[in-house]
Amino acid sequence: MNTFLLAVGIVLCLLAILVLYRVVFGPGVFNRIAAISAIGTKTLIILLIFGFFYGRVEMFIDISLVYALLNFIGCVAAAKYLEMERER
Amino acid sequence: MVFRSEDVIVKTISRILVPFIQLYALYVIMHGHYSPGGGFQGGVILAASFILMLLTYGYGETKERISEKLVNLFSSIGVLIYAGIGFLCLLLLGNFLDYSQLARILPVEAARARSLGILGVELGVGLAVMAVMISIFLDISSGGVVPDDRDVDEDE
User: Fold this and answer.
1) Relative to the CA of B122, which of A32, A67, B30, B84 has its CA 20 to 30 Å away?
2) Which residues from chain A sit within 8 angstroms of residue B41, using beta carbons?
């Protein structure tokens, strides 16, 4: 089971690195925002996998909840910024 | 500069979400000694709920819940709780923040007094951090002009 979790975690890390390419070189702001929230979601799952791996899920669930929350608020803030730019 | 928006989806979602965020922040503050988190992290989550409210509803409507004056008051009260518990321990012939000395005035044994003292300090830290975070957000988003002041200027 631990090997499986480790493999899933490594694959998710590689996928996050792939998405990072879009964040750095992505054309336009929308691509960047979508990529950043995708990385946030992947990080959340990686945190949960860490929790199962070390056998302390109840701690890592707290952290991942906070991460999801701040990800959402960051997304709203970025959308707000874009709306402001359009109105200007 | 904190804009009002007429977006129904974002408004509804954040109205549903804000109480749960605040409940979760209180959970993080209360369980600071068992799980990751504590006063600072809980305060930041509590501030995030108010920042979400500010982002979606604007300062005009959020002012009725938490205003600039209230934020300043809360930051002072938070520091007062923290330093007050610390100096109370000094007055009870202990070191600064030596919680076990609180057993002299509380009807509990030393270990329980230590736990309660830590909880009180965490509450103070959470309150102060929340207030300062909201204050920073208001200052950055309004360019340093407190919205209350601007309203007064327009009236004149």
Assistant:
1) A67
2) 66
CB of A59 within 8 Å of a chain B CB? The answer is yes
Helix (H, G, I), strand (E, B) or coil at B88: helix
Percent of chain A with pLDDT over 70: 95
Beta strands in chain B (DSSP E): none
Q: Is the Cβ of A2 closer than 8 Å to some Cβ of chain B?
A: no
Name residue, tokens 């209230």: B70
Which chain B residue shows the shortest CA-CA distance from A59? B35
Beta carbons of B5 and A77 less than 8 Å apart: no
Structural domains in chain A (count): 1
* Cβ(A12)–Cβ(A42) below 8 Å: yes
Chain segment B136-154, per-residue pLDDT in tens: 998 888 776 765 555 544 4
Amino acid symbol at B141: S
In terms of residue numbers, what domain contains A65? 2-87
pLDDT digits (tens, 9 = 90+) for A32-63: 888 999 999 999 999 999 899 888 888 888 88
For A79, counting Cβ atoms within 10 Å of its Cβ (0-12 exposed, 13-18 middle, 19+ buried), the class is: middle
Residue of chain B whose Cα is closest to the Cα of A77? B55
User: Distance (Å) from the C-alpha of residue A77 to the closest C-alpha of chain B?
Assistant: 7
Instruction: Give the C-alpha separation, B40 to B119, whole Å.
Output: 13
| Distance from the A53 Cα atom to the nearest Cα atom in chain B, whole angstroms | 17
Is the CB of A62 inside 8 Å of chain B's CB atoms? yes
The token pair at B30 is: 């209360």
Letter for the amino acid at A79?
A: A
Q: Which of B110, B75, B59, B73 is nearest to B89 (CA)?
A: B110
Structure token digits, residue B35: 């799980």
